[in-house]
Amino acid sequence: MSSRLRHPLTALFGGVLLTLPWIVSWLTGVNESFGTLTTVAVSGVAVLGASFLLAWGAETAEKDVPRAFAIAVLAVLAVAPEYAVDALYAWQAGQGDAQAANLAVANMTGANRILIGIGWSGIALFSIYQAYVGSDDASVVTNQGLLGDYVSLDRDIALEVAFLFVATVYAFFVPLGGGIGAIDTIFLVGLYVAYILVIVRGDVEEVEEQVGVPAYLQSKRFSVRAPAVVALFAYSGLLIFTAVEPFAHGLEELGVQFGIPEFFMIQWIAPLASESPELIVTAYLVNKARATAAFNALISSKLNQWTLLIGTLAVVYSISLGEYGVLMFDQKQAAEIWITAAQSFFALAILINFRISVGESVTLLVLFLSQVLAEFYLIRTLPPAPAEHFSILLLYAYTVVYVVLTVGLLVRRREEIQTVASLTGSTVRDAVGGEAEQPAD
Fold first, then answer.
1. Which architecture, in CATH terms, is 2-432?
2. Measured between alpha carbons, how far is 18 from 28 in angstroms, rounded to an integer?
C-alpha cells in the first residue's frame, strides 16, 4: 500500500483533485451563487492545484524543448490572469470610463513591482533558508556573514537580463508621451517576439534529473509525453484564467469591507492574487532544490509583463474604442511607471553578476514594502487631493533612490556588464545561424 501511495500518479491525481471543486462549479455555474469567502477559498485552492500542474508540465517539457522556452511558456500561463485584468480595464477605458485607463496602469505597475519586490527577493531568501535547513541546492553559496550568503544563478540568464534591460530603459520614456500608443506596442511586443525567436532556436539542454511526476512523464515515449505536457499546460491555463480573477476580486471585496481603499486594492491586492500562481510555482521549484530554474521563471515573467503586457494595452484600448487611440493616463500613473522602471533597473544591476545575496534581497524587499506602506499611510490619513500630491512626491523620491543605487552598482560591476553583453551576443548569433565561439570541453 505504501508503494502505491508514493507513486507519482498519486501526486498528479492529488493536484487535479484540488482543482475539481472550482472547475465543476464553474462549468455548472454554481460558483455564481458562492459568497465571497467561499469564492476565495474554492478558487484559491484551485489556483494552488493548477500551479503544481503547470510546474510539472514545464519540467517535463524540458526533455524536448529548450529550457528557456519551456519556462517562457510557464511564465506566460502563470501571469495570464494579470493580462486579463489589465485588458478588462483597457477595454473599459475604450468604452468611455475615464478612470479605467489609470486603473490599467496601476494594476500593471503593481504587478511588476510585486514580482520583483516580493517574488525575486522572497524566492532568494527562501532558497537560502532551504539550504540552511538541509536542501542540497548547489546554487546556494554560504559566505562570511549572514547577509553575504547568496544564490548563484545560471549564466544563461544573460539573454533575459539583456532583453529586460532594453525594455526597462525604454519604459522610462513611455510617460513622456502621456500615454501608451502604437510606437510603444511595436517596440515592446517586437522586443518580446525577438526574444522568443532567439530562445526557441536554442538547443535542448541535458535534462536535470527529476523526481516525482516530471520524472515519471519523462520516462514515457514521446507520443505519450507530448500530449501529457499539452494537457497539463492547457488544463492549468484554463484553471488559472478562470479562477484567479474571482480569487482576486474576492480578496478586493474582503479588503474593502475592512476599510482598505478600492484603488489601493486594485493596485496591490489584486495583482498579488494574480501573481500567486507564479509565486507558488517558483516556491515549488526552490523546494526541489532548483533555485536557478525558479529565478529563470521569475525573470521570464518580468520580461513578458514588462513588454507584452504594456504593449498590448493600447491594442485592446483601440479595439474597444473602434479606432486607433492612445491609452492616456494621469501624472500619478506616470510616476508609477517611473518607479517601476527604476526598481527593475536596480534589480537588474543586482543580477548582473549572476547572483543575489541575502543583503540585496532584503534591500529589494524593504524598499518595496516601505514605499507601499508609506503610500497606504498617506491614503488613510490625508484627504484625497493632498494624499495624491504627497504620493507622487513619494514615488519620485523612491525613483531617485533606486536610480542612485543602480548607478553605484553598475559602476562597480562594469566588467559584468561586458560579460552579459558578450554572452547575449553569442546566444543571438547562435540563434540566427552565425558562428559563435564554442566553449571548451
1. Up-down Bundle (1.20)
2. 17
